[in-house]
Amino acid sequence: MPQGYNQNPPPLDTVARIVSIFHEDTIGQEFFDTVLDLFTTFDRTSYSQNNTTFTNDRTHILNSIISSFTAIDTSPKIQDRIDSYFYICCRIEEYDTRVRSFFGMWPASSHNKQVRQALHNYLVKIFVETKGAKPNLNISDKNQLNKMNIREHLVNITTINNEDTFLAFLV
């Protein structure tokens, strides 16, 4: 678990597993398959428990994603897990939409914005550092790629600090 990570009340076992997956060595398709399986299990488990800890569990997931961008053991792996991060952002948005339909006014938390901003900052950073060679998607499932709406993420990247970054994006 990341240091300083608040676990009160404790999350579902599946959420604890989602939090810990970021600190494992898997990357690429294997990591994506694990994330996909864990989120499917989370959906089933949360539903079977009437979503009693849903908002808390969602917060734990968001905190683990945010901390993974700065953790020494996880940050270097992100470029080989980028499709999983897109997928997780998509799922969080789905959860927020679902909750809004039940509770009416459900404000998207600042965590959502933090995750998106951290992802966008990372994309720009790695893209510039590798002169556009990375990051690359590892999955080829067209349905999952469409679901992730990666284009939306790319359109929302507004950090172009200099001409080199701008030219790298144009290439």
Describe the protein's architecture and organization.
By secondary structure, the protein is mainly alpha-helical. It has one domain (13-170). The protein has 8 helices and no strands. Helix 1 packs parallel to helix 3 (54-68). The radius of gyration is 16 Å and the shape is globular. The model is unreliable at 1-7 (pLDDT under 50).
The pLDDT mean sits at: 80
Q: Flag low-confidence runs.
A: 1-7
Sheet/helix structural class: mainly alpha
Tell me about the biggest sheet?
A: none
Provide tags for this entry.
171 residues
List the helices and strands and how they pair.
Elements (H helix, E strand, L loop, with lengths): L12 H9 L6 H21 L5 H15 L13 H22 L6 H20 L12 H7 L1 H6 L7 H8 L1
Helix pairs in contact: 1-2, 1-3, 2-4, 3-5, 4-5, 4-6
Short description:
The chain is an all-alpha fold and 171 residues long.
